[in-house]
Amino acid sequence: MPFMLISTQIRLENGPTNVGDEFSDPDVMNYLGARKTTVLGNNFSEYHVDDPPRLVLDKLEKIGFRLLSMTGVGQTLVWCLHKETE
């Protein structure tokens, strides 16, 4: 999976950080120490870590992901990353 989105809510810059959905690469999620959760009422799961986004970005860079863009959407901060396929 060459693309990845991570996000956090404004005022939660110290974590937790949303690092994936139910279709995310399990090896990457394990590397990040992410836990898979399903919020009551949602029909999908998400992966979260307690780390702030800066630490998540540092970890992802170490395994080959590069930041493509960052934006704010309402009260959410979103980073888009890409990893070259081999």
From TrEMBL:
InterPro entries: GFRP_sf, GTP_CycHdrlase_I_reg. Keywords: Cytoplasm, Membrane, Nucleus. Coiled coil: none annotated. One of its GO terms (biological process) is negative regulation of biosynthetic process. It is found in: Cytoplasm, Cytosol; Nucleus membrane. One of its GO terms (molecular function) is GTP cyclohydrolase binding. Its main location: cytoplasm. The keyword Ubl conjugation does not apply. Belongs to the GFRP family. The lineage of its organism: Eukaryota, Metazoa, Chordata, Craniata, Vertebrata. One of its GO terms (cellular component) is cytosol. This is GTP cyclohydrolase 1 feedback regulatory protein. It comes from Knipowitschia caucasica (Caucasian dwarf goby).
